[in-house]
Amino acid sequence: MPLTLLSRRERALFFFFALLLLLAVAGPSLPSPGMGGVPFADERDWFGLPHAMDVLSNLPFAALGVWGLRWLHWHDQAHEHVQDAVPLHHAVAQPPVNLLDCTWMFFAGLVITAAGSAFYHLQPDALRLAADRAGMTVAFAGLIGCAVCERVSARAGWPAAWFVLGAGLLAVAVCQETGNVMPWALVQFGGMLLVLVLALVRPAQGAIGLRLGWVIFFYALAKLFELSDRAIYEATHHLLAGHSLKHLTAALAALPVLHALQAMGRQTLRHNPGAAAVTA
Questions:
Q1: What's the CA gap between 113 and 135, in Å, rounded?
Q2: Per-residue buried b or exposed e for 197-215, using 16+ beta carbons within 10 Å of the residue's own CB
Q3: Radius of gyration, alpha carbons of the chain
Q4: Segment 37-67, tens digit of pLDDT
Q5: In the chain, how many H helices and how many E strands?
Q6: Strand partners, 31
Q7: For the chain, which end, N or C, has fewer CB atoms within 10 Å of the first or last residue's CB respectively?
């Protein structure tokens, strides 16, 4: 699509992604410290499970991911029920398909993140770190797509999600092969900068009320816990480490998405209470 046919926000998004791509290709190389061998504070086993807390603290990712996928499945069935029951001229408004597709990607990505991160923490090394980051990329791409649908335009969300997914997986491969972590840093921190900026602009038409500010809050808190891994471990007298708290807090970033979807679901039920009988 020619740039002249894009809205002002869509053009700004295009140039932002182009800038990140340029920096990834032409920017300086940033060596990856340790290449996955960075020691974690809590190395305790539990009933033979290595690094138990850092492994088990990924369960909230899986739980919230399954919850979100189940809700989306229910919503699809309930919406079909409503559309069949309501006359055509009273059809219930459906959120943009792109937005729902992005939420499917996000919640599926949470389940993959749980698996990849647990796999990594069982025996941390560079190859397993790549698997961990690949899982994170799926969830991250879905989140970026949701944010773009909410604050830029519905039609831009799905392409943005796929751009981030492709760029993220490529950045993981580059880091694994060359040790240059710069492309991955641009995907991760550039993406969250984008979410922060989008949190400050007016919602686009068709937005479902996703509170991006809370997403940023949980992400920033998770990074703080990650950087304070050993300090928290010592402060809690070896009860809990910062990296385990990072997993628990990062998973909470799914709650604003779930809250927005459930609010949308309540609107569907108001149009047709019989949709509540539809189960996943």
A1: 4
A2: ebbeeeebeebbebebebb
A3: 20
A4: 568 999 999 999 999 999 999 999 999 999 9
A5: 11, 0
A6: 180
A7: N
Chain center to CA of 143: 4
Cα 234 to Cα 51, 78, 276, distances in angstroms: 16, 50, 49
* Structure token digits, residue 199: 């949190």
pLDDT for 79 equals 63
The closest alpha carbon to 57, from 110, 139, 117, belongs to: 117
d(CA 170, CA 161): 14
C-alpha closest to that of 138 among 183, 171, 108? 108
Amino acid 122 reads L
The pair of structure tokens assigned to 132 is 């961990």
- Name the CA dihedral angle for 82, 85, 87, 91, rounded to a multiple of 10 degrees: 0
Whether 9 contacts 151, CB under 8 Å: yes
Token pair in block for residue 107? 């919640």
> What CA–CA distance (Å, rounded) separates 166 from 19?
16
Which of 274, 264, 265 lies closest to 82, judged by CA? 274
Beta bridge pairs of residue 49: 46
- Please give the Cα distance from 236 to 243 (Å, whole number): 13
91: pLDDT strictly greater than 50: no
